[in-house]
Write a structure and sequence with these properties.
Elements lengths: L1 E5 L11 H15 L3 E7 L12 E11 L2 E11 L5 E6 L1 H4 L16 H19 L5 E5 L5 H9 L8 E6 L9 E2 L4 H4 L12 E2 L2 E3 H8 L2 E4 L2 H6 L3 H4 L3 H6 L4 E3 L26 H15 L10 E4 L9 H14 L3 E6 L3 H13 L4 E5 L4 H10 L2 E4 L9 H7 L3 E5 L2 H6 L13 E3 L4 H17 L1 H13 L4 H17 L8
Helix pairs in contact: 1-18, 4-6, 10-13, 11-16
Bound molecules: alpha-D-glucopyranose.
């Protein structure tokens, strides 16, 4: 089985979010299971060519965009485990600091052209390489063109290839919406500017394009796959997803257990495993409290947060609940984040107003800080309004830090809520997207910490022993690829 991943980001080369974790780990896991999975991404200027040992493969390949030929080069590198990644070099589009936007956080105005070009160049590269895929697997709006191009062009080279499109985030602002002016350059047919293909509210919608044209659609958890069929989570596309319900499935992401383990010393004061988690977490808690200016006390629970300060992550309810908890409960908070300015400013004020109770480090996400928070903390906050999968709750569990989550998407699927009767669970869940519901659940966690330490012990062991690796998920993807390959290709008709 040959699978071509076409994606706009891959960790560690270039990353803006969880998408890059998946496009790194899933192909690796597939390769371990006998699939020939290769990855193609753009060569942004932030990719460190030296560090990753990128080698030139082709100098002058070419794709036809509307009214224009674009020439590009292809680089490649192999990871020690054998996964091959190809990079499309075209500096007009990718020789920039950001992936999708500049330092001012404004999207680049030519994003549609950039990624249309990238999708065509990626398919051309497969042809140049003679890599004839059984499955072409694209991800999110940036590669939404891929299934469309495959269907429209009917290139004999891809005759037997099926397209799989994964939705990592369907939210508004993540659908790739552009003016119809892009159609000529991007080679979109005017006959397809209809709601059944890519037209939405008079604009071109790339997420919709992929949903309507891919052979199979997946998303990153079973619960989110059901949620996006409803108006609340479907963000205007629910009708089109309902029409594809037979081809839509949800596969819960795994986590990279080599990187996300408390058992290695790169970032931690004391590495630990489930057998010595008490000592390990105590040493890391002590360090955390010192580093973050918290009151040093081994017997107070710490809640962590490293999510973006954004609406999707439940920012508003989190801010309200945390301030109330700082006033009323004996607990501490450590927050490493960036995002909405009002929230950044409020957090700065709180570190003055509640000294010893909250530690704040704003700015770009640092991996080592995330590890330290997960090792030294007791609980991890994730009250997302919607969460296709979410990874931090699973990373936290691996560190024996119990997630406090809203019951939605992948959070619903990866956390077993505390059962007070039996003293088991891998976290704390609540349903209502309100400040009160979160505040009460934080209170539930705090009281469990003080009053039922034997239940905490059970839950920590259960969380740390849980298998969240990519092994399971990669088998599910292989099953899905098999199904896609053996089914007839989808025929477009409108
Ligand atoms: C997006 C989603 C997140 C998911 C990630 C990887 O970032 O918001 O929930 O875990 O993609 O699939």
């Amino acid at each position: 089985m040959r699978v071509l991943f076409i994606t706009s980001e891959v960790d560690p080369y270039a990353k803006s979010g969880g998408l890059a974790d998946v496009t790194q780990a899933l192909p690796r896991a597939l390769n371990r299971n006998g699939v020939d999975a290769r990855v193609i991404m753009p060569l942004y200027s932030c990719v460190d060519r030296q560090r990753f040992n990128l080698k030139l493969l082709y100098q002058a390949s070419c794709v036809q965009m509307g009214g224009k030929e674009e020439w590009f080069s292809v680089y490649h590198t192999s990871e020690p485990n054998g996964t091959v990644t190809y990079f499309i070099e075209y500096n007009n589009y990718f020789g920039r600091a950001g992936l999708y936007n500049g330092v001012d956080f404004r999207d680049y105005p030519d994003n549609a052209q950039r990624f249309a070009f990238f999708c065509r160049a990626a398919l051309q590269t497969a042809k140049d390489l003679g890599f004839r895929p059984d499955v072409v697997h694209a991800h999110d709006w940036m590669t939404g063109f891929v299934p469309y191009y495959l269907k429209k062009e009917r290139d004999p080279f891809f005759e037997n290839a099926r397209s799989v499109f994964t939705i990592h985030n369907l939210g508004f602002g993540h659908q790739g919406v552009f003016s119809p002016d892009i159609m000529a350059y991007c080679r979109l047919d005017h006959a397809d500017f209809v709601p059944e293909c890519f037209e939405a509210l008079g604009q071109v919608n790339l997420m919709k394009m992929a949903i309507n044209t891919a052979d199979k659609i997946t998303t990153v958890s079973p619960t989110y796959a059901r949620e996006i069929l409803t108006p609340e989570y479907g963000c205007g596309l629910e009708k089109y997803l309902q029409a594809r319900a037979d081809d839509l499935s949800g596969i819960l992401n795994g986590i990279d257990i080599q990187n996300w383990t408390p058992n290695e010393g790169r970032h931690l004061t004391m590495p630990y495993g489930v057998e010595n988690y008490r000592d390990g977490k105590a040493a890391n808690k002590n360090q955390l409290q010192r580093d973050w200016g918290l009151n040093v006390n081994p017997n107070v629970p710490i809640f962590g947060w490293v999510n973006r300060l954004s609406t999707q992550k439940g920012l508003d309810i989190m801010m309200g609940a945390v301030e109330k908890a700082m006033g009323n409960m004996d607990c501490q908070f450590v927050m490493h984040s960036s995002g909405e300015k009002w929230a950044e400013n409020t957090l700065k004020e709180w570190s003055v107003k509640y000294p010893g109770k909250i530690g704040v480090k704003l700015g770009f996400y640092k991996n080592e800080i995330a590890h330290q928070i997960k090792a030294g903390g007791d609980f991890y906050l994730m009250p997302s309004l919607y969460e296709p999968c979410g990874l931090n709750q699973m990373y936290s569990q691996a560190f024996g830090t119990l997630p406090v989550v809203r019951e939605t998407g992948g959070l619903a699927d990866s956390v077993d809520s505390y059962n007070e009767h039996y003293g088991v669970g891998t976290g704390f869940k609540f349903k209502d997207p309100t400040q009160d519901a979160l505040y009460n659940t934080v209170g539930w966690a705090v009281s469990t910490y003080y009053d039922r330490p034997h239940h905490m012990d059970n839950m920590i062991r259960q969380s740390m022993s849980k298998d969240s690796s990519w092994g399971n998920a990669s088998h599910k993807y292989i099953g899905l690829y098999d199904k896609a390959v053996s089914a007839a290709a989808r025929v477009l008709a409108w």
